[in-house]
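Subject: Predicted fold for Cytosine deaminase, 405 residues

User T.R. writes:
Posting the sequence so we have a shared reference for the thread.
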Amino acid sequence: MKAMATQLVPDVAIPCSLAEGLRGFVGECHSDCLVGTLLLKGDRIGGLIRGDSTSATKLLFPAPVESHAHLDKCHTIDRMQFTGGDLSAALEAQRADKDNWTEEDLRTRATRGLTEASSAGCKAIRSHVDWGQESSAPLAWSVFLEMAQDTKLHLQLAALTGIDQLADPAFASKVSKQIPSGHALGSFVLNHTRTREGILNAFKTAADRGLALDFHVDETTDPSSNGLEIIADIALETGHKGPILCGHAVSLASQPDEVRKRIIDKLARAGIFIVSLPTTNLYLQGRAGSVPAARGITPINELRDMGVQVVIGTDNVRDAFCPVGRHDPVRALELAVLASHLDPPLDLWLPAITTTAGDAIGLSSPSLQDAPLSEFRIADASDLSILVSGAAHRPATTLLKELTR
Ligand SMILES: [Zn+2]
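User M.O. replies:
I've generated the structure tokens; pasting them so everyone works from the same file.
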């Protein structure tokens, strides 16, 4: 067999955490990146060697993964008579808007969301879909499943049910049978009356059908809301296989130190992923007094320090839950840096929107060594601070065309 020719791309930066411990990746350390000459073997990454220069003109990074979105709700704010409020006000306004959710409306808005995610370099996106009161699937579910066949992005859906509904085994079973393999069973957990029964059923149903789990949990600063610990307890009791992703976990930050540490320890032992969603939480939480007041935000640093895999997502885009934004995980990371005090070096945090985000929704992330270029993006940047601040980027496969010019 003919050996694949090696091509050289000078002055490339690779996030240090990505290359750490890998043989064949050597360069000059500059800020949060390793700088050198990238070796390509065909359309795969062969390694990094020291180059003549220590400054990079291009940054290679894994394709972002949007792990938490709501394509059924996005881009609706301009037709609502909504002038702000807390989570319950947003729920009410969004419920009223559902009368407009025809097939054409859903397709148009979701296409806009997917186009944004593609432009943001995403390789995959998980969207929740409000399930509603009936056990039969809502219109958005079938429309988006069809769109998942047509879009270049990997579009994964999570059925967003109420945890009280899942406490009914017949409801849980009927819903789960309408979730194809590769998609997720999701639920909203916030001071419901049958939380433990519902979560137990969610785990049982997901195990029976081999589905991933995804919870919206404790979206409040009120520490009496602690669905997160019930989820962790049941995950430990059942030894559930498959990714469990918990979004928000806002009340965790309001817990007394020893309670918070106890919960985080359980999350780490259960291998539960936590997705922080700063946009929606900053907009909806902490509205009881005058602004600025304490806002609800996931305690990302502490979670990570205690061994929990943390992810950062976009959540709502231009709807009643968040009236601004676009589907762009890099932008979500930029906001999380400010909202959650994520300190440099930023290569420690990049996995939260790339490789770890992929793991959290059950996608495999190839190791850098020998990985296909199609899994990566190239930014006009010399380090991650420039990327996170909004540098332009493109698919890394364009490197091949640039080399032949
Ligand atoms: Zn959400």
